[in-house]
Design brief:
heterodimer; A: 253 residues; mainly alpha; 12 helices; B: 466 residues; alpha+beta; Transferase(Phosphotransferase), domain 1; 3 domains; seven-stranded antiparallel sheet; three-stranded antiparallel sheet; 10 strands; 46% helix
Chain lengths: 253, 466
């Protein structure tokens, strides 16, 4: 397993393409292998955990699930499955899940391929990422159905991706320190949050300014989340629908 | 190998498990999807008579945020009106400095003295009791900033941008009489109201900050102003005077016309170097079909050497108005040169003789003139509008035999003026203030000179004898 440090969201300041367009760009692998490789990596970074969770929920071991998830992305590109989909009609999430199910329906063939040594290890997979995905699976493995498990994992992947995007934005604006100090007001944490007065004193700014920073951070997180969702759907209406659905998935018992 | 989840940490805020990165997905969910977020206890934020408004979440309502402070929406508790309240944090080293307070106060007084329709009014200056913050209460302008307008609708057309530029220049002319320099003129400091009025905000504040800079570092070492809109001399190349604002106005108009700034860069040094070294990217203007007269004005305002810019706001105003006239002539009016327009008036005078004898032609002329007068916005051309109205009333009174003290010569001049104003300009859209076309000084003065005595007599008759 490649343990390269970092993840795709380190470049989130750019985010030049939607997920859909990344998929399409990946399809040009013969003409532009670098672009396809980059596109594939970005896909993996965001959707690896929910897809892995789904595979795990089918009873595969950790390693087999990792290999199958990797193979799925390879298959996605090699056979250009996305090219058969009408982008206007569905969400990217639904497309990926349906494609994964089809892929797993032929899992026996894939397993044979893997055992013959035909599996490609062309996707850098971070150890941290793999651990995180497994942790996510363990947390939600009692979900009512494998589809629900996938949706929930997806929603949580998006929450995390939104935070990564926000972090990258602050870093680009040279406000990394500020973001790290305020992160707890958006993402919670193990340590108790400081009072505004304490933190304002530590940062050397007025409490009112601090409150403004927090307000802005929270607003920007909401916008970052919308931006993440926007990359997986087609219209603003679908963004609202998707956000509503993901909230429902996350809050149902 | 089966990986077991690592020992799970608990969020100190909501008690939910944290993910592998130590983030609480439940908190993220609440912030991102439920908009409740981590609990913030709302508490009032007040400065003197002003209390900052809060939204439903208890967050303070911000209008803007810049390098020198935060601007809030606030309520004036005494006068019961809403204001824009700019709050500036004073660094510890400067809090006890009487000299700094004096300088702030001096700039605040200068800004308060500046009263102009194109400048957001300045209401009050104060400081928090502990000296950590000072605040400026200003007129709350309903509308959007020029920056927001361009972001929302894209770049403006030349006439619209020019009109905005002229109104900003009026503000600069007023400021010049108080020796005030804005120093941070930029699209986000230009408010556009729904009535197409332009209001410059934050006048004098940046200067107050930089003046205080000798004894304090209010900006924590950051550049005061906005680098992309700042003049080269604001980067230290020379003394800053009113021509610095003229440069910033040029950059602002450039942005309005293109959605871009003339010199981009990632760092302060890079922007400064590009301003000093690179030619203006005029191709940006050409790509947006910005007319040559406007390009010429922008070139002069954005000259690196202040000596090559318009020397004052008044001089800039002349350039902009000349520019506007040139653009206006482009709207299908076949009179490109003043000489031709004077000829047109000569023809109108000749036609007036026929009109004066032909009641039908005269009535048609009246009706056209009245329609035009009704369609013309009064505000920008108040004097000319009143002038036309008076001429119409006079002719009406003359032909009703109510007021006969009009010489034949004056009558012809008045009818000719109406002819001149009404007939050729049927080509012009109704919204165009047609009286702006009597900007040919020779024609205007000629008509006024020929009719002044008649009109004065008529107005006297109207007010005293009628």
């Amino acid at each position: 397993m490649d343990t390269r440090v970092g993840n795709g969201h380190g470049q989130s300041d750019l985010f030049p393409s939607t997920h859909w367009s990344v998929v399409f760009a990946a399809g040009r692998s013969q003409a532009e292998p670098d672009i396809s490789q980059a596109a594939l990596e970005e896909l993996c970074q965001t959707y690896w955990a929910p897809l892995y969770s789904f595979v795990r929920s089918r009873g595969y071991t950790v390693h087999d699930a990792q290999d199958l998830t990797q193979s799925f992305f390879a298959c996605l590109l090699e056979h250009k499955i996305y090219a058969r989909v009408d982008r206007q009609k569905g969400k990217f999430r639904s497309f990926l899940l349906a494609s994964l199910k089809n892929f797993l329906a032929h899992a026996a063939d894939h397993e044979r391929t893997l055992k013959r040594g035909g599996g490609q290890d062309f996707l850098p997979l971070h150890e941290e990422q793999a651990k995180e995905a497994e942790s996510l699976f363990q947390t939600h493995s009692t979900a009512s159905s494998e589809d629900r498990l996938f949706d929930r994992s997806w929603a949580e992947a998006l929450l995390a991706a939104g935070l990564e995007r926000l972090s990258a934005d602050y870093k680009r604006e040279s406000k990394e320190k500020l973001f790290n100090e305020l992160r707890i007001f958006v993402a919670g944490g193990a340590d108790p949050p400081p009072t505004y007065a304490e933190l304002a004193d530590r940062l050397g700014i007025a409490e009112s300014t601090l409150r403004s920073h927090v307000t802005r951070l929270r607003a920007r997180y909401r916008e970052a989340l919308r931006a993440e969702v926007r990359r997986t759907v087609h219209t603003e209406t679908q963004v609202d629908e998707e956000l509503h659905e993901l909230l429902h998935v996350l809050t149902e018992s | 190998m089966e990986t077991r989840p690592a020992s799970v940490s608990i969020c100190s805020i909501c008690g939910e498990p944290l993910n592998a990165k130590g983030d609480c997905l439940a908190c993220l969910r609440r912030t991102g999807l439920e908009e409740t977020g981590v609990e913030i206890q709302p508490s009032a934020l007040a400065f003197g008579d002003f209390e900052v408004e809060q939204d439903a979440e208890g967050s303070y309502r911000e209008l803007g945020h810049g390098a020198i402070g935060v601007t809030y929406l606030a309520a004036d508790k005494v006068l019961r009106r809403r204001v824009a309240l700019k709050v500036i944090e004073v660094p510890p080293a400067a809090r006890d400095s009487q000299a700094v307070r004096e300088r702030f106060l001096r700039e605040a007084r200068a800004a308060a003295a500046l009263r102009h329709p194109n400048v957001a009014a300045f209401f009050q200056f104060g400081a928090s009791p502990d000296g950590t913050r000072c605040y400026y209460a200003m007129e709350l302008i309903e509308g959007e900033t020029l920056a927001a307008r361009v972001r929302r609708n894209g770049p403006l057309d030349a006439k619209e941008a020019l009109e905005i530029g002229i109104q900003i220049t009026r503000a600069l002319m007023a400021a010049a009489t108080h020796d005030l320099i804005h120093r941070d003129l930029k699209p986000s400091n230009i408010m556009l109201t729904s009535e197409s009025e332009v209001k410059v905000i934050d006048f004098g504040l940046a200067k107050a900050i930089t003046d205080a800079g000798g004894e304090m570092d209010l900006t924590h070492g950051e550049f005061v102003g906005t680098p992309t809109f700042a003049s080269p001399e604001q980067f230290g190349s020379g003394p800053v005077d009113a021509r610095s604002d003229i440069y910033s106005l040029g950059a602002t108009l450039w942005f309005a016309l293109t959605g871009l700034t003339p010199h981009l860069g990632q760092t302060l040094d890079e922007i400064r170097d590009r301003k000093m070294r690179d030619d203006l990217p005029v191709a940006q203007l050409v790509a947006r079909n910005v007319p040559e007269p406007v390009v010429k004005v922008l070139r002069s305002t954005l000259a690196i050497d202040p000596g090559e810019r318009p020397a004052s706001a008044r001089e800039l105003m002349q350039a902009l108005e000349s520019c506007r006239r040139k653009l206006t002539r482009r709207v299908g009016v076949p009179y490109d040169k003043p000489a031709l327009r004077t000829q047109a008036f000569t023809r109108a005078l000749s036609d007036a003789k026929a009109s004066a004898r032909d009641p039908e032609r005269l009535r048609a002329l009246f009706e056209k003139a009245a329609r035009k007068a009704a369609a013309v916005p009064r505000k920008p051309f108040k004097e000319n509008w009143a002038y036309l109205q008076t001429m119409l009333r006079l002719i009406r009174a003359y032909y009703r035999c109510e007021y006969r003290q009009v010489s034949d010569d004056a009558l012809l001049w008045i009818i000719a003026a109406l002819n001149y104003l009404v007939d050729p300009f049927d080509l012009i859209p109704d919204k165009t203030p047609f009286l702006g076309f009597i900007d040919d000084a020779s024609v205007v003065e000629l008509v006024k000179d020929k009719t002044r005595r008649t009109l004065d007599g008529f107005m006297k008759w109207e007010t005293t004898e009628r």
